[in-house]
Each structure stands twice: as structure tokens, then as C-alpha cells.
Protein 1
Amino acid sequence: MPLKPMLAAGVGLLVAGLIAFALVNVPPGDAQAEYGDVVINNYSDDAGMRPVVFPHWFHRIRFRCNVCHAELGFEFKAGGNDINMLKIFDGEFCGACHNSEIAWGVENCVLCHTGMPGMRTRVHHSTSDRLVAPPSAKGQ
């Protein structure tokens, strides 16, 4: 194999490894949602758990869109899925991969439930976060 492609592949693996190391070694409670992360808080606050901060781009590095959005049934909209832990335990949604074989198992709650209490379900720093509602006609 020529040197340039070999080096590029090695750098890609190194970057992926560093990202994985950083995600696993962040102490619970210190994680913040980054650009493009999906905050999932459909039931977490009510259950006394921190919201899930789903690192979308970290997963996108490894998988094509259709793996999650077609094969696993995730909607293309934050809050568009009725995700709960029972479904995940049954192998639906996140549980299809987070089964202790493909990725860590669901017993590692603090690896996913890292958001701050009260964070709403959304795509963090998405365009909709930056939109400002126009002044109402009543006030004019």
C-alpha cells in the first residue's frame, strides 16, 4: 500500500481512538452537549435521570445514515421517536448496538445519561436554536 493512503488511514484511526477515549473518560456530570448532539429527554427528568446526550457525529463517523434512520427506525427529527429504556432493553433503537457485543451495554447508564437536568429534547446548536420569533402583530 502506498505511504500516503496508509498514513491517512492511520490518522483516521488515531482520531477515532482519541474521540472514543475522550468520551469514555469524561467523568459523569461533566459532559456538555456539543454542536449537532441530540439531547433526548422524553422521560429522563420524570424518571430522576439525567437526559441522554447522543453524540450524533461520533456515530456518523462509523455508520451511514441509513443504518440508524432506516434499519433501526430513528426519525430525522429530535423528539420524533418514542424511545424509552424498556425498548432499548428489548434491542430497539440504541439497544440494537448497545448490547455489550457491538458497543457497551445498557447497564452503563452514566455513559449516555450525561445531560444537565431540565435540558429539552433537541438537536444542540441546531438552526432552530438560533431562530428568533418575530415580534407579534399585537404589540405594534
Note: The longest helix spans residues 3-24.
Protein 2
Amino acid sequence: MPALQAIRGPVRPALSRELPSIRQMLVRAFHDDPQFEWLMPSGSSRPARLHQFFGTLLRVEGFGIAAIDVVTTEHAISGAAVWYPPGCWPPPATRQLRALPGYARALGRRTAAASALVGAAALVHPKTEHWYLACIGVEPTTQGTGVGSALLRSRLAVCDAGGTAAFLESSKPSNVPLYSHFGFEAREPLRLPPGAPEITPMFRPARAEPLLTPARAREGACR
């Protein structure tokens, strides 16, 4: 789709006023994601639950701590990525406590399943300094046009400039080759209860020689 490629804007930090649009885009992007199909099995209530989930992630837990990158197409949000800087995952306990009611409302009776997922993920989360990709989503109508690759490339350039590793969990096996193309190495899938989707942790090692000092590359501190 060359026309979309031509009018797509550069990757840039999200503005506070754009958070509602980012949330709506993520609701559409993750509606058929295996992880959320498992956690929110009712297709009819999933949009409302995703709306609550991503609202909590963006406004309560992540904003001001996470780096939220966006790409726009014709003045609309076509993709977004939420990255936690080194040392900022998990978020401070105060943030987690403030976010807990929102996540509980989003997950309802599946809160225990979500806790099992979070616990399994915590067991394999790297202890070394790294940027953590909490989520990346692309508007369904612009998927396949390079938006996701642009988002990855932009933040990974920051990782490389600071000599910092990166980490993510892929909830779609079909996305593993894409992340591998950008240097992520797949690890053993998370050990989850029966019926859960396959979620693959992926780690991208740091560059041997950073181009910038880590302090400059982090773009701020966790608080």
C-alpha cells in the first residue's frame, strides 16, 4: 500500500490528549489477540473490557513512566508502542496499587488467570538492564504497511544508542519471526494453565559498544 507508506508520519512521543485515541486503537488491535481471547472469552464484552484495561495501562500505570511511541496516518493514530525504560518494570508499588482496581474491573472473573500469567512472566523476566515492550498495537486497517516495524525500529535505535537490551512477550506465534528479524531471541514459552495461549518471551541483547551514555538514552527516570 504505497499511498499509506507515503503519508505515514514519523514515530514520535504520544501527547497526553492523544491517550483516548490510542486506547481506542489498541482495543481494535487486540480484539482478536490470543492472550485477550483467553482472558476475556466473551466477544461481546471484550471491547468494553479492553477499553478498561488499556485505559488503566495508559493513564494510571504507564503514563509519565513508560515511553509511549505513536505513528499517525492522516491525523489518526495508526500504531502505538508502550515501552518501560530500564529499571522501571515493574512499576513502583504505588502505581501498581492505583492500577489494581482498573485491571480487576477489566478482567472480572478472569483475574486469577491473569495473575497466573503475570506470575509466570515474572519468573522469566530478565534481571539485566533493559527496555521492556509492554504492548505494541497497530490499527487493523493499517496492519501490514510497516507501522509496527517503524515503531520497533525507532525504540530499538534508542536501545542501541545506549547499549541497552530489550525484552518482550509475543502472544502470537506468527509475530515471533518479525521480532526475530529485529534481533530478538525466542526463549521457552511461559508455563501457563491448560487452555492458555502460547506466549513466547523474547530477549534482544545489548550492543557491545553504546553510542550514547545510558543516562542520555533512557530519556528520563522511573517515578
Note: Residues 46-62 form the longest helix (17 residues).
Protein 3
Amino acid sequence: MALFAIGDLHLSFGDQFKPMDIFSGWEGYTEKLEANWKNTISDEDTVVLAGDTSWAMKLQNAYRDFEFVDGLPGRKIILKGNHDYWWSTMAKMERYLKENNFSTIDILFNNCYRYDSYGICGTRGWVSTGEDTEDERVMFREVQRLEVSIKDAVSKGLEPIVFMHYPPVYGSFCNYDILDVLYRYSIKKCYYGHIHGYSQKNAVTGLHDGIEYTMISGDYLKFMPLKIM
């Protein structure tokens, strides 16, 4: 029973067709992902999907993308990305999964999931310059959701591992609102996606101020889910 992670699948099997193959490094990516996944992951494993899973604009339009994910081996835990426009309330998403018999998928949203002695925690995150009031409101909510998720793990006696879509650190930029939560709860590992192409050169990986950061964007991993433990 192993734990894997990958972000930014950007699936578009449904009516919201938005192929990623036009970008360098994304040629035939769904076929690569499926082959790598099936050759690596078993039904007993767990895979965290760190946002931007489907291009669908509405939940009901994400059916074929969820069907693809559900049909892959293992349990999948999905958190929100900035392009997951289909995202809804927890009750609606859980009902949708149940009604469509997507039995291998769970949603990470103001909660945590147990993996051995660890708690899988996380949220989307955000980028705020401090100049836009709406950005500040979104950031405040994301900070709250991250803390609620980590607290859920701590209350269950689990060691939190954090997964996010936006990186808390990138180049010389630091998201101090998010970092404050990570530091207060002594988080040791943080996994994130969102960064693509040329921008990946500024991604922070490895140990930084006591936290080990790992980027798990799909194209960065060449669509091979990363084994964490």
C-alpha cells in the first residue's frame, strides 16, 4: 500500500474540450499518464491529485474526466486547482460521486484523510499581492481551509502532510499567510503543482526553512505519479 501524488492532469474528455497537446511536453499526455499509472499503481495504493484535474466548467460536464480517473487503479484524493471550475460544495460533490458510482474518488476540502499514521491535508492556496480586496478575501478563506484540514489530522493523532495547488514559495516569492500556518503546525513536507513549462525553472524544491517542498505538476513529472511513501 503506497502513497503517490500528481497534479495538473487537465483532462478534457467531455464537452469542454481543451487539449493540452498543443503545448511542448504535453503530446499524448493522457495516454502516457494512463500507461504510467497502470504500470505503477495498484488498487491498494492511494494517489493525491493536486488540483486542475478537469477542464469542465460544471460538475455534470466532468463525467467523462471522472470516469477516466475512477477507472484507474487505486484510491484517488482530489483537491481544488485554479482551473477546476466544476468545483462545488462538499455535499454536492459527494452526492455526484455517489450517484455516478465513482467509488475510488474522495474530495479533500476542509478535512483530511488517513494514510497509515499520516494525515493527508491540503487546499488550493492562492496568490495575493495585498492590493486587491477580493484576492485578500480568497486568501483568507484558503488559509482557514488549510488550518481546518491540518487541525483535523492533528485531532486524530496523525502527522500532517500538506498538498496544495499553488506553491507557498516560488522563486523569491513567499506566501507568508500560508507559510504561517505551515510553520505553526511544524509541517515537514509540502507538495504542490500549478507551475508549467519555462516557469518551472523558478520552482522551489528540496528543503526550505525546515519544510521539504516537492513540485508534482503533471508535465514536470512527465505524467508519472510520484511515489511519496
Note: The first strand starts at residue 3 and ends at 6.
Protein 4
Amino acid sequence: MLDLIEITGMKKQGKRNRKFCLVKCSYCGKTVEMRYDGYLASQSCGCLKAIKASKTALGLRTHKSSRTRPYRIWISMKDRCYNVKNKRYDRYGGRGISVCDEWKSDFVAFQQWALENGYDEKKTIDRIDNDKGYSPDNCRWATSKEQSRNRSTTLSVLYKGAYYSLAEVAELSGVPRDILSNRYRAGERGDRLVRPVGEDWTRMVGETNANAKITAEIALDIKQRLAKKETVVSIATSHGVSKYLVHDIKQGRTWKHITVDNTEVTD
């Protein structure tokens, strides 16, 4: 792939003026100047043709896999990392995601890794750590369900002392995912989030709840600081409580009987 560095200007070529640009070839790493229309139509600075010609001259065969699914995956993987015109470039190359040297210019190496590490027609390549690039130690073959759990946009929910995605909590608790999603958006957390479907749950607020995490004085302090526009996270951190508790107080879901207008706290 060619990465455009800059437009260098117009130059006379034959009887016409042509636009030229400076590009960097992701295959060989060279920086070269070439015609702009050539840049738009080319995949490399010319090194790929040279490599192919040299292999042919030596009587060597190419991998002959250009029409296979692994090859398309390999090309797409590099394109979103190095082609600034790729619609997903900002989520990959734009934030520093790259392809390791072992795979970048050697499809055969990638293909061999794929076949030895669980490649399946129903699976796609997945990065284990979304902040790291494509390499043997950070990639796996995963189903769409497994990939969704690994996306940076997946919700992380506390369940029985550990964090899981909503899909995983649905499997562990037996509560359908769509119900969990609706409850989560409504601000429900903890045992209330994973309560069995159909179970009556009367919300207990403030000190009428035996499991209340804070006192009335702390609730008042939280409301006063919220009124001063202090962030939910900073308030939660200072009191050592969940940000969701502070958010529920802010939304009036709990500790409703505590008001910042009164200097006294009433039950």
C-alpha cells in the first residue's frame, strides 16, 4: 500500500503538465516521488512487480492463494492499517494499529500461522488486546460473538466480583440480554440488574434499605457537591463508592428525602 505524504507540485512530462506526489511504500518502506495518477492506481512503488519478476526468473512459484479467504483477510488487514483512504483507517492505522513485520510483506507466513492456530471459514481474525496491532501473539480466530465481547465499545458490568460483558452476564445469570440491556439503560446495577425475570423488586431507598452503602450525611454532601457541578467520578472517588450510586442520587432515583435546601437531614 502507498501512503501519501504530500503533493510536490506540477511537472512537465512530455507535452503535458502532470501532478506529482511524495509517497511511502508500506511494502518495502521506501519514500519515492511518483505521478499522482500513478499513486491512485498502484499498490506499491513498483517493488511488488520487481519481486514477482525475480521469483519468475529464478523459477520460483508464488503462493497462488490470491483468491482464497485468508488472502483477502490479509489484504484487508493491511489496508485498514496503512491506507488512509480506507473508511475504517481512523479506527486502525489512525490510532497506531499496525501489522507486524513477520506478516506485513509475507502472506505465506500469515497463512501458515492461520492454519496452525484455529482458522475456520466461520471465524474472523481478532486482536486480543484492542490497543495492540496484528501479530501472532495478539491475534486469534474468533466467532462474531466472541469478537463482540472483545470490542472496546462493549459494556463491562460487575457481576459477582468480576467484570463481564452483558452477553456473558446473560449467560451466567439466565436473564435474557435484551432485558439486561433495558435494565442497564434504566440505571439498574448489582442484584437489581440480574434479578430473575418477573420477580417483584420494590426499590428501597436511603436508610430504609438495610444494605445502604452510605449515611444520610454522606448523601447530603454528595447532593451539595453535585449542585456545585462537581463530577460524578470525583465525588464517588472521594467517598469510596460506586459512580453509579452517585449517578442514581443525581437522577433522583435514591435518597430523595435528602435535600440541599435543608440544613437538617430528615428521614
Note: Residues 54-62, 202-208, 262-267 have pLDDT under 50 and may be disordered.
